[in-house]
Design goal:
By secondary structure, this protein is α+β, with helices and mostly antiparallel strands. It has 6 helices and 14 strands. Helix 1 runs parallel beside helix 5.
């Protein structure tokens, strides 16, 4: 299907996440969540072979789960920087952490003017409930800030989560900002083509207005029809939280995790 027709169809029919139950996502503090005690994930693990490293494991659902042997994303690297290191939620499955590092490096190698990737919360060291989040419990969720431009079009490091309207306008510290559609589309592309993720990127939560800007930018940059269509299905605004100030990336369970109790939402 021609790129223009794909774009028109995607913009006319937002992703199916719009009709999913709000309990699947962050947001809506008024929705009560039943607390269920889960066994520690290590209870599900087979005994490791002698000398073999213990793999990371996601157990349960994003909004009711645990993480075992999670990988830790360093607070700062050559191509990324954590924006809330003090809360201690920089743990995820090995593929999530390795994929974020790869994404950050790919973006800056391709365009050295790109600021470091600003990474928010992943999960706690053992997963479980996390203040300010309904999900982020089993090591397969990560918050990533948008790339910004200042009023003159120069890139800025996005040191805090800042909201943008449907036209890509925002304000930080009293100064106007622009949503950097070009770099944010390249970020989406890197996530969807990441060798550590494969086809595991299940959702990239973002507001409807910014989703439309991203898809238009993808068409403008000549994205392959298949990539544009996949982005349209993956980018979505979930119930209860508009995600106007950051991307929320969620990976689907790996085959091994599914065998041991991981649940996709």
């Amino acid at each position: 299907m021609p790129r223009k027709l794909i774009l028109a169809a995607l913009l006319a029919a937002p992703a199916a996440a719009q009709v999913m139950p709000a309990a699947f996502f962050d947001g809506a503090a008024t929705i009560r969540q039943r607390v269920v005690s889960l066994p520690h994930p290590s209870a599900f693990l087979p005994a490791p072979r002698r000398g073999a490293p213990l793999a990371s494991l996601a157990v349960g659902a994003p909004n009711r789960g645990r993480l075992v042997n999670g990988a830790e994303l360093p607070v700062e690297g050559p191509h990324w920087r954590a924006i809330r290191p003090e809360v201690g939620r920089l743990y995820g499955t090995s593929e999530l952490v390795d994929g974020l590092r790869w994404t950050a490096e790919r973006l800056r190698v391709a365009d050295p003017a790109t600021p470091p990737l600003a990474v928010g919360d992943l999960s706690g060291a053992e997963g479980g409930r996390a203040p300010r989040h309904r999900s982020h419990q089993n090591g397969r969720d990560a918050d990533v800030n948008f790339f910004w431009l200042d009023a003159k079009g120069a890139p800025l490091f996005s040191e805090r989560m800042t909201s943008f309207d449907a036209k890509g306008r925002g304000v930080y510290a009293g100064k106007p900002l622009r949503f950097d559609a070009a770099r944010n589309w390249r970020l989406v592309t890197a996530l969807l083509t990441n060798p550590h993720f494969g086809r595991q990127v299940r959702w990239i939560f973002v507001s409807r207005g910014l989703r439309a800007l991203l898809l238009k930018e993808g068409a403008k940059q000549g994205a392959a029809p298949g990539l544009l269509e996949r982005a349209g299905k993956t980018l979505a605004q979930p119930p209860g939280n508009s995600h106007r100030n950051h991307f929320h990336v969620r990976l689907a369970c790996s085959g091994e995790d599914l065998k041991l109790g991981c649940k996709n939402l």
